[in-house]
Amino acid sequence: MCAQLSRETRRSQNFVFIIISFYDSVIGLYMEPLTSSGSAVLQEVEESTTTTTTWLVGVDWHDEVPFFFGGVAVAVGVIYNESQKHTTKASWTTNVEPSVKWDHNWDRCDPASLVKPSKNKNSSDEKDAKYAENELKKNTPTATRHLLLIRHGQYNTDGEEDNQRYLTELGRKQAEYAGQRLKDLGLSYTVLLSSTMTRAKETADIIQKFFPNLPRKETDMLRTGAPIPPEPPNDHWQPKKQFLQDGARIEAAFKNVFHRADPSQEIDSHEIVVCHGNVIRYFVCRALQFPPEAWIRISLNHASITWITIRPSGRVFIRHLGESGFMPADKVSGD
Q1: How far is it, in rounded angstroms, from Cα 206 to Cα 183?
Q2: How far apart are the C-alpha atoms of 283 and 258, rounded to whole Å?
């Protein structure tokens, strides 16, 4: 459904009120005069309408008149009391239901889900509550994990076996640019994890030159493959067996790498993960809880950096997707 966006701004001696609205409903906001403490009362009244016109009634807060505007998706109010120099943010409302709700326990590490119920039938409710409170605190993380996913550099696509698919001269230069970029960020990295495939290991080797003391790990789970049948379908045919085998492995890799910090972790961590375009694209979709079959719609340049943050609450944010601006334009490739 298309909607007409409208915006109204009202200014008076003691407040500013900003309205952003769509059609389909009318909401009334009644504002009483500001008190000396700078507080205000906001009452919301909603009633149906078919108008697409945004209109405003009332010219002065002294009259204690209601403000109406046609059609609401979001309403944001900011009230400013000049005498107190205090800003109060009014509540914002929406009548839109999300198409897909966020799964807060996506990594099965939500603290509440880790609290084991008490088996002592003779314990009091107060003791059970205290036990649950202590267990919840013990299982609640406080640190943030940052995952910096690096796609390998350009490689020899004419090779038939993995050991023949080594980095090209350009690919080695791209890996150097990525390593320098990671160093320039000035972060304290905790581990360098990579796929066991030749092009990924060579990329990780070059990056490690910038961090000689950084612990190094390799895993077959991060090897490239076909994670899930894409939508829309790709012209390049893949047997269902390959999706079944690769998909299970890559999904297992996601569950192994992506999770909120352990409660014992005291400070934020930054981890470097060197792997493959298909794997990273699938990880991005899974981490953001997008349809995983959409991975094919994302394109990543060689040696690009994708930065994903996992908060203690389990919220996931993407800070960079396929960043390659740290390379000269003539050194960028993505096939």
Answers
A1: 12
A2: 8
Angstrom distance (rounded) from CA 147 to CA 317: 11
Read off the amino acid at residue 123: S
- Report the DSSP pairing between strands 145-151 and 25-31: unpaired
User: Tokens 């981490």 map to which residue?
Assistant: 287
DSSP label at residue 282: H
User: What phi, psi does 318 have (nearest 5°)?
Assistant: -110, 120
Sequence-ordered list of residues with C-beta below 8 angstroms from that of 304, at least 6 positions apart, any chain = 150, 151, 178, 322, 323, 324, 334
Nearest alpha carbon to residue 263 among 142, 157, 116, 104: 142
Residue 248, helix vs strand vs coil: helix
CA terminus-to-terminus distance, the chain: 38
What token pair was written down for 265?
A: 């972790």
| Bond into 233 cis (ω within 30) | no
pLDDT at residue 58, rounded to an integer: 35
Neighbours of 263 (CB within 10 A): 17
Q: What is the CB neighbour count within 10 angstroms for residue 37?
A: 11
Quick: pLDDT tens for 258-298. 999 999 999 999 999 999 999 999 999 999 999 999 999 99
| Coil, strand or helix at 47 | strand
Encoded tokens for 56: 């405003």
**CA 300-193-321 angle, 5° bins:** 25
How buried is residue 122: exposed, middle or buried, by Cβ count under 10 Å (0-12/13-18/19+)?
Answer: exposed
